[in-house]
Amino acid sequence: MESLELRIFREVAYEKSVSRAAEKMGYVQSNVTAHIHNLEEELGTELFIRHSKGVSLTDDGKQLLSYADQVISLLDNAKNSFIKSLPTLRIGATQTLSAHRLPLWLSVFKKQYPQVNLSVFTDTQINLIQSVADGDLDCAFVNSEFNHPRLESVFSFQEELVFITPQNMKVGDIPYQPIVVTNICGCPYRNLLETWVIRNTNRQPDIIQYDTVEGIIKAVSLGMGISLLPQNVLPEASGIQTFPAKDIGSLNVQLLTSKNLNNPTVNSFIDMIQNHSDY
């Protein structure tokens, strides 16, 4: 008695049809019928009653189904116990970082470690920090200061910031335009831009909010206002121009992990980004 024959028998028993069982298992009907016939020959009994609506179990068939359920369950459990689960790297990032630099790093990492599953989560700075502290994330990129007793910074880099404006706008007109920013609480780009406008104009700017980087860039290209973003997230898009944000400078981005973390997958990721920090 082979395990395949038991699986076919069980499928026919639950489907109450040879044709439906064959279709579900991807076999031709004659193959399923042959396996059932072999099983009945080996056991010396009929397992099914054939009728116009399909098949139904005999008393011996019902007894065998009980055994088949137990045997197949044991076989599946035994197989699963030898399957080693693949490691997963859970990374948190802001929308801006996950839009450009992070995919480049993950592409390199996946080529070096194809056996590792990757999961990227985007959220606010506060939630990312807390998720690492709670163990829901292995690491997270943040561009705000943090002070948490269980976390440490293991890598950092500078993001060069630029003003983005509609085409043909003059530098002197930038501070007086509406600002197009994210609606995410605590976004450092929004905070820096608002502060810069107030410092240069002594007034609160008009604000237009979008929930994606793509939406912000599109709104600027349509002449709705100006924004502040990292240089490397900007596509080759028509309708916008950029100016160095010299008065604002760059923004420090850090990779946070739990202190004294002993996770080979995370350590491999840190080594990789340190070797490709120019992305």
UniProtKB/TrEMBL annotation:
Residues 1-58 form the HTH lysR-type domain. Keywords: DNA-binding, Transcription, Transcription regulation. The keyword Plastid does not apply. It comes from Lacrimispora saccharolytica (strain ATCC 35040 / DSM 2544 / NRCC 2533 / WM1). SUPFAM superfamilies: Periplasmic binding protein-like II (SSF53850), Winged helix' DNA-binding domain (SSF46785). Belongs to the LysR transcriptional regulatory family. Transmembrane segments: none annotated. This is Transcriptional regulator, LysR family. The keyword Transcription regulation applies. It holds the Pfam family LysR_substrate. GO terms for molecular function: DNA-binding transcription factor activity; transcription cis-regulatory region binding.
